[in-house]
Specification:
This protein is about 75% helix and about 0% strand. The chain is an all-alpha fold.
Length: about 190
């Protein structure tokens, strides 16, 4: 196995990985929209049902992020094996921790918004941070990833002005990931 320290393998969002993440975003958006519509249609608006709704949405988003991490990890593992490199090198470890801590911070901020009854700012704030994270980790040869980052920022602005547009923004983000995965292959 090569241990050349100049060869650094990093996690990427190209090909099938981006398609998977797009599908996860689409499924999560649909599930959350369905939960919210069912919650609003029921006559019981008790505290316990609201807590269950929040737990369900938090679980959906947690598993969406977790499955997205798994998709990037397994893609990175396949690429490392194919190129006979170590997956966990200094760059990939630092990248993993930066992304992991970033998502924890995003969740913390979004939870703070929820506790302050600022639910309308949850999706736009997520889109801003996600767009900035994509921008921070784009590679020079992957300039197309900047398009997804720009889409996130654009839709965050739209969602700030029109809070009910959150579902459409997430669907378009999912479709953008799928399109990016189809267009940009290894």
């Amino acid at each position: 196995m090569k241990t050349d320290t100049t060869s650094q393998l990093n996690f990427s969002l190209i090909g099938f990985t981006s398609i998977q993440i797009g599908i996860y975003i689409l499924l999560a958006a649909y599930a959350i929209e369905t939960l919210l519509l069912n919650f609003m249609e029921t006559d019981t608006l008790g505290l316990s049902s609201e807590i269950n709704l929040v737990i369900a949405i938090a679980s959906i988003t947690f598993f969406t992020v977790l499955f997205s991490f798994f998709a990037m990890f397994f893609k990175g593992k396949r690429n490392a094996k194919k190129q006979q490199l170590q997956l966990w090198n200094q760059k990939s470890i630092s990248t993993f921790w930066i992304i992991f801590v970033s998502f924890l911070a995003i969740y913390g901020i979004l939870y703070l918004f929820y506790t302050q009854n600022l639910e309308d700012f949850i999706t736009p704030t997520f889109l801003i941070f996600y767009g900035l994270l994509l921008f921070a980790f784009h590679k020079k040869e992957r300039k197309n990833l900047l398009i997804i980052s720009g889409i996130c920022i654009l839709f965050s602005i739209i969602c700030f002005m029109i809070p009910s547009y959150w579902y459409s923004a997430l669907v378009i983000l999912g479709v953008a990931h799928i399109t990016y995965g189809v267009v940009v292959k290894e």
